[in-house]
Amino acid sequence: MNIDSLYSELTLDTKAKMVMIVLDGIGDIATREQKYLTPLEAAKTPNLDALAKDSAQGRMIPVAPGITPGSGPGHLGLFGYDPLEFQVGRGVIEALGLGIELKAGDVAARANFCTLDPKGIVTDRRAGRIETEVCEELCALLSRKIKKIGDAEIIIKPGKGHRFVVIFRGKGMEGPLTDADPHREGFPVPKVEAVNVKSAKAKKAAKLIADFYKAALPIIKDRKPANGFLMRGIAHQPAIPLFVDRYKLKPACIAVYPMYKGLAQLVGMKKIEGPQTIAEQFECYLTEHANYDFFFIHYKYTDMHGEDGNFNAKKKAIEDFDAALPILLKKKPDVIVVTGDHSTPCSMKGHSWHPQPVLLHSATSGSDKLKRFTETGANSGSLSVFDSKFLIRLMQANAKMFDKFGA
Amino acid sequence: MNIDSLYSELTLDTKAKMVMIVLDGIGDIATREQKYLTPLEAAKTPNLDALAKDSAQGRMIPVAPGITPGSGPGHLGLFGYDPLEFQVGRGVIEALGLGIELKAGDVAARANFCTLDPKGIVTDRRAGRIETEVCEELCALLSRKIKKIGDAEIIIKPGKGHRFVVIFRGKGMEGPLTDADPHREGFPVPKVEAVNVKSAKAKKAAKLIADFYKAALPIIKDRKPANGFLMRGIAHQPAIPLFVDRYKLKPACIAVYPMYKGLAQLVGMKKIEGPQTIAEQFECYLTEHANYDFFFIHYKYTDMHGEDGNFNAKKKAIEDFDAALPILLKKKPDVIVVTGDHSTPCSMKGHSWHPQPVLLHSATSGSDKLKRFTETGANSGSLSVFDSKFLIRLMQANAKMFDKFGA
């Protein structure tokens, strides 16, 4: 019997409220340089400490041992979808990051302007890192000139610097496609092809992109240095079973950054717009408490400072979160989870594979008798090490949403 | 390669003796109300403590994260059978609980007397909770009048109060079937149907049960208040590979309660009748030591008091078990396991999904340097968290029953 079918069969209707707080990239590693303390260990977190006393802890593997996830697989795992089964291409992630609302079947490409010589050879892959304003102007120009190709709608959105995104919205297309990018200078832009040569849908998408190149290149051919463009991570938005159908929970996303709103939207969460700080996000939870069952609250700064290798700033971000926590607890949900989508160790200045710590608090979580929420404490917690994709199942169990299996 | 094939291939013939002691529902959670101690932590267990010193510990997931098992899946997991692959219906469990020896293919229904109005509407689902004696008399009457329907033998056994069990022993039948129970009053008894509409065997069983209703209802129609009956959890006894074939171990069950004897019998264990206390169960092990290789010793009271939410009684049950333990150790087996089939936290008054602690002692278990056997200690044990279905494989390894895999 399929395990997801079992969970579905056993699911009961309850009035439980659950909150999953994602401190992006929270997990870290202890090093000699930082006196063997992680930012979570070094931070002063009186409110989290109080919660930890009556909580269970453990660590989660976002994808598989040793695999470092991007934000896409990291969050899909947290939302309970196997990141190997539900893959979201970089083009899609990039589009979500720009706040573009994708539809199932949309093919998205991550693109950037480049410089081509008269023979079409790439001489600068980033077009001299043009200013965002130039990129915006070029995208506006292309958008005006190319609205449709055949039946397909073309959506072009500028990003930062030389980066932009192109969405191909038509029927019967899919990714992934090979990159229109030689990945080094001195070579021409290769034609995109279907990764799966048997997919007629991918071939259709590849043809459309070739047509897009034919239409777009003449428009910018005299622009210097941005007289060409590259495309990568070309993929379609996968059809993902809706969160509400999977869990019988009405979900809301309270995030600040577009990418996380986009990832939440992929699984059908309602985006709640407005809040800009973690305190405002918690206030927003209080306001919306009655309207949803499940709240995904995303906090970016732990990851951002981890990526910068700024230990003190990551520690401070944790303390800021902790200071705001009492707002959430004014209407304490039945189940609270505090975790990350992956680790972002300061000493590595990037995402990593280290299982992230997780804290789960409910009336039935029991206490692991740990005084604080830390990586080291989580190692000896009762939740042990488990795959992220089971986190919401454990939250549901703690909310008494599952009937007993068998007599 | 299938993992079970690998285990089989590597299995060596040894003279090892193993004992699996199942303290039913032993796992618990630490709560503020009980000063953050579980019953296992609060109990005085000098004998278990001495064993723990030279043992490995860990925690086991009975079915899957967040899934609370009944006794059926809980024990099948302990016996090494994936509870999702081998599902045992409620009717079968109920029959086992009444000590009925089922044969593979028997279809069993959990039944109870009810009250019907002249139009066949259920007016009392429990027939005013008739006395056990009345139920016994009605079952005896039905048994006398209905011995067979067509080729199928009909076996009717009374339970407690208004409850009874009906076994349909014939050829070419299977479950599961829908319930002959409206699950509320004011409705007629629905006809049972095959859950899998494509199963001819299930349709045959459904027809037989319809015939049984036609034969049985007229016999009790003038009885008040028990003039009708409901049937639920109608399923067949699944064919389960025999324990002796799977493990090359001759198994015996030393249990007091019929359901556990029945579950052991499902996988082909020999039931040893007689002992009523844990001390007597251990004495029985001493007597039977030479006759079997594997002893499943079941202790019910930890679960019973957990279900009642009686912390002190659960603690006392653990102490009673501990006091009897030296009897077993007079003929120390090569491998001893102490665990549960699932957790039954007192604060939840029922089974739960929390991984149960497990202790494994052998000459090769090593020591986890834990002074006691507790949930918190088990969290940091060398066995870590694993699925129950691997427990006997670990016992076999500790008994040096597996050859090396590969060179």
Summary of the model, kept short:
The structure is a homodimer of 407-residue chains. The first copy, chain A, is an alpha/beta fold and 407 residues long.
Number of strand elements of chain A: 14
Biggest sheet of chain A, open or closed, and with what strands and sense? 8 strands, mixed
Q: Helix/strand-derived class of chain A?
A: alpha/beta
Shape of chain A: globular
CATH topology of the largest domain in chain A: Alkaline Phosphatase, subunit A
Largest interface: A-B, 31 and 44 residues
General description of the model:
The first copy, chain A, has helices spanning 3-10, 39-42, 46-52, 71-78, 90-97, 132-145, 200-220, 243-247, 258-266, 278-288, 301-307, 311-329, 375-379, 391-398; strands spanning 18-23, 55-61, 107-116, 122-124, 148-149, 152-158, 163-169, 228-236, 251-254, 270-271, 294-299, 335-339, 356-361, 384-387. Chain A has two domains: 7-86 and 240-398, Alkaline Phosphatase, subunit A (3-Layer(aba) Sandwich), CATH 3.40.720; 92-236, Alpha-Beta Plaits, CATH 3.30.70. In chain A, the strands form two sheets. Chain A has an eight-stranded mixed sheet with strand order 10-9-11-1-12-13-2-14, with helices on both faces. In chain A, strand 9 (251-254), helix 9 and strand 10 (270-271) form a beta-alpha-beta unit. The mean pLDDT of chain A is 96. Chain A starts with a helix and ends in a 9-residue tail after the last helix. Chain A is of the alpha/beta class and 407 residues long. Chain A contains 14 helices and 14 strands. In chain A, helix 5 (90-97) crosses helix 9 and helix 11 (301-307) packs antiparallel against helix 12. The first copy, chain A, is globular and about 70 Å long. The longest helix of chain A is centred in the middle third of the chain and has 21 residues, at 200-220. Helices cover 33% and strands 19% of the residues of chain A. The A-B interface holds A 1, 3, 6-7, 10, 54, 364-369, 379-382, 384-386, 390, 393-394, 396-398, 402-407 and B 28-32, 36, 59, 63-74, 83-85, 87-90, 93-94, 233, 345, 347-348, 350-355, 375-376, 379-380, 384-385.
